[in-house]
Amino acid sequence: MRIDIITVLPELLESPFSHSIMKRAKDKGLLEVYTHNLRDYTPYKQAQVDDYQFGGGAGMVMMPEPLALAIEHLQKERKYDEIIYMTPDGPLFEQKTANSLSMKKNLIIICGHYKGIDDRIREHFVTMEISIGDYVLSGGELAAAVVVDAVGRLLPGVLNDETSALFDSFQDGMLAPPVYTRPADFRGWKIPDILLCGDPKKIDDWRYEQSLKRTEQRRPGLLDE
């Protein structure tokens, strides 16, 4: 999978993809992530990429021409399955969206800044919009990193145990059950006896019951969905 990220602050994305699972995915050749500085594509003086809003109002808007030139430059090299715009007014990012995107081959992610991007780019180029929550960040870089991480870890071969992702929270519409590791008795706090019973079927049933219970307590809306 290849992901191209268009941003005015590529430095913000250096660390998230240089460590841990994302680094492993890149080292294995399973994931390619490229950042593109939008200022490299602007025809305006002093690398300008934003301007005042028509009609007045506080805050600057990212201009359409630099974004269009950046997208079209990338499209000359390959076909993209989705052009994604990270925006707080987009549909909420969910596990099912990550699952779907992990099946794609090439993605472009646009990181907004200021008051957002000129709406004509959204109308004529963007094919998918994503929000990671009902709040506003200084820019779309951190949100883009969240999406890349959630999608990249699902690629076959990225995780050491490929079944691990299947049991994450939200994969089956519920929260994950509680987990324990050694020692079995820590300061007198013991793990549930059933985890030591040696019967995989009983343990799986217990985990399902705990997952259901935790979801009912913490995120009952997931069960309604």
Structure notes:
This protein is α/β, with parallel strands linked by helices and 225 residues long. It folds into 2 domains: 2-152, SPOUT methyltransferase, trefoil knot domain (Alpha/beta knot), CATH 3.40.1280.10; 169-224, tRNA(m1g37)methyltransferase, domain 2 (Trp Operon Repressor, Chain A, Orthogonal Bundle). The chain contains 7 helices and 9 strands, in the order βαβββαβαβαβαββαα. The chain has helices at 20-27, 64-75, 95-101, 119-124, 141-152, 200-218, 220-224; strands at residues 2-7, 32-37, 50-52, 60-62, 82-86, 106-111, 128-130, 185-186, 189-190. The strands form 3 sheets. Strands 2-1-6-5-7 form a 5-stranded parallel sheet, with helices on both faces. Strands 3-4 form a two-stranded antiparallel ribbon. Strands 8-9 form a two-stranded antiparallel ribbon. A hairpin with a 2-residue loop joins strand 8 (185-186) and strand 9 (189-190).
- N to C succession of SSEs: EHEEEHEHEHEHEEHH
What is the CATH-assigned architecture of the largest domain? 3-Layer(aba) Sandwich
Helix coverage percent of residues?
Answer: 25-40%
Q: pLDDT below 50 for ≥5 consecutive residues: which ranges?
A: none
For the sheet with most strands, the description reads: 5 strands, parallel
Percent of sequence in beta strands: 15-25%
Please indicate the count of domains. Answer: 2
List the helices and strands and how they pair.
Layout: E1 2-7, H1 20-27, E2 32-37, E3 50-52, E4 60-62, H2 64-75, E5 82-86, H3 95-101, E6 106-111, H4 119-124, E7 128-130, H5 141-152, E8 185-186, E9 189-190, H6 200-218, H7 220-224
Parallel strand pairs: 1-2, 1-6, 5-6, 5-7
Antiparallel strand pairs: 3-4, 8-9
